[in-house]
Design brief:
Elements lengths: L8 E5 L4 H12 L3 E6 L2 H11 L6 E5 L5 H15 L4 E4 L14 H32 L5 E6 L12 H24 L3 E7 L25 H15 L5 H14 L3 E3 L5 H13 L11 H11 L1
Parallel strand pairs: 1-2, 1-4, 2-3, 4-5, 5-6, 6-7
Helix pairs in contact: 1-7, 3-4, 4-5
C-alpha cells in the first residue's frame, strides 16, 4: 500500500528486539523517519544507537503499550513532531502458557494488556491521524501492521491465554481492514502471523511488571515455558526474514503475512472442522509423541 518509503514515518512498538528491530532496520535503510517504542530501556538504547545515524529523524520512547496514558502521550508527540505516520507496526508482544484455568488474573491482565490492548491503543490513536492526512493529501498512503501469531489461527493446548490474545488481534485486524476499505482507498492493514521464530518472546517474562509477578508458576506453566523455549530457540526462519515479508506485504497490500506457510495445513484442518461441525481436531496428529509426552507430564 506504500509504494515509496523514503521520507515517510514509521512507528514501531517492540522496536528493541525481534520483528520490531528488524523492521526498524529495513525502514531506516529505506530512508524512513523512525519512532521506536519499547518497554525495555537498554534494548531501546541499543536500537537508537544503531539506527539514529541512518535516518534523518529518530524519536524513541520507553513505553508500556498497555498503558493508555503513555500511548496517548506518544501519539501526541508523534503528531506534534512528525505529523501523521505512514507505517504503524503494532508489534509488541509477550507470551505465557499453562492450563487455561490456572492462569491468574495478573496473567490475564499482563498478556491481554500488551498483546491486545497494545494493538488497540495503536489502532485507535494513529488511525484517525492517518485518515486525516489522507483527506488532506490525495497522494498520502498509509499502512497498519498488527502482529498476531499462528496461535491466532489455531488453538494449541497449554497456551490458552496467548491463543486468546492473538485470536483477538486477528479479528481486530481483519475488521480494521474492512472498516478502512469502507472509508478510504489510501490506507490498508495487514496481520502478521508468525510461527516459531527465534526472537525474545519466549523470555518476555523478563519485562513483566512487578505487580504481575507475585505468584509462583504452576507445573503446567513451567512445562509450557520449557516447550516454548525449545520451539522458539530451534526456529529456522529468522526475524530478519520475517521483517522482509512484512515490507513486501506493505508494498503489495497483502493482508495475511506468514513466516511458515506450511503450517497452514493445521489451520485448514481446524477450519474444516468448524465448517463441518466436527469436534476440534487433534493438534498433535502429526507429532503424537509430543502430545503423549505432554499428557503424561500433566496427569
Amino acid at each position: 500500500m506504500i509504494p515509496e518509503f523514503a521520507g515517510k514515518t514509521a512507528v514501531l512498538t517492540g522496536a528493541g528486539s525481534g520483528f520490531g528491530l528488524e523492521c526498524a532496520r529495513i525502514a531506516a535503510a529505506r530512508g524512513m523517519q523512525l519512532v521506536l517504542l519499547d518497554v525495555q530501556q537498554d534494548a531501546l538504547d541499543r536500537a537508537v544507537a544503531e539506527l539514529s545515524p541512518q535516518t534523518t529523524q529518530c524519536m524513541a520512547r520507553c513505553v508500556d503499550v498497555s498503558d493508555a496514558t503513555q500511548m496517548q502521550q506518544v501519539a501526541h508527540d508523534v503528531w506534534a513532531t512528525m505529523g501523521a505516520p505512514h507505517l504503524v507496526f503494532n508489534n509488541a508482544g509477550v507470551a505465557a502458557g499453562g492450563l487455561v484455568w490456572e492462569n491468574s488474573l495478573d496473567d490475564w491482565n499482563w498478556v491481554l494488556g500488551v498483546n491486545l490492548w497494545g494493538v488497540i491503543h495503536g489502532v485507535r490513536l494513529f488511525t484517525p491521524m492517518m485518515l486525516d492526512a489522507a483527506r488532506q493529501d490525495p497522494s498520502y498512503r498509509g499502512h497498519i501492521v498488527n502482529t498476531a501469531s499462528m496461535a491466532g489461527l489455531l488453538t494449541p493446548p497449554n497456551m490458552g491465554i496467548y491463543n486468546v490474545s492473538k485470536h483477538a488481534v486477528v479479528s481486530l485486524t481483519e475488521t480494521l481492514y474492512q472498516d478502512l476499505h469502507l472509508v478510504t482507498d489510501q490506507i490498508s492493514a495487514s496481520v502478521l502471523c508468525p510461527y516459531f521464530v527465534p526472537t525474545g518472546i519466549s523470555q518476555s517474562h523478563r519485562n513483566r511488571p512487578t505487580q504481575h509477578s507475585s505468584e509462583a508458576p504452576t507445573k503446567s506453566q513451567l512445562i509450557g515455558q520449557a516447550m516454548s523455549d525449545k520451539a522458539v530457540g530451534s526456529g529456522k526462519v529468522s526475524a530478519a526474514e520475517v521483517a522482509h515479508k512484512v515490507f513486501t506485504a506493505v508494498e503489495d497490500d497483502q493482508f495475511y503475512i506468514y513466516s511458515h506457510p506450511k503450517a497452514l495445513g493445521n489451520v485448514q484442518h481446524r477450519m474444516e472442522a468448524i465448517v463441518s461441525g466436527c469436534n476440534p481436531p487433534d493438534p498433535f496428529a502429526e507429532r503424537p509423541d509430543i502430545g503423549e509426552s505432554l499428557r503424561q507430564a500433566l496427569r
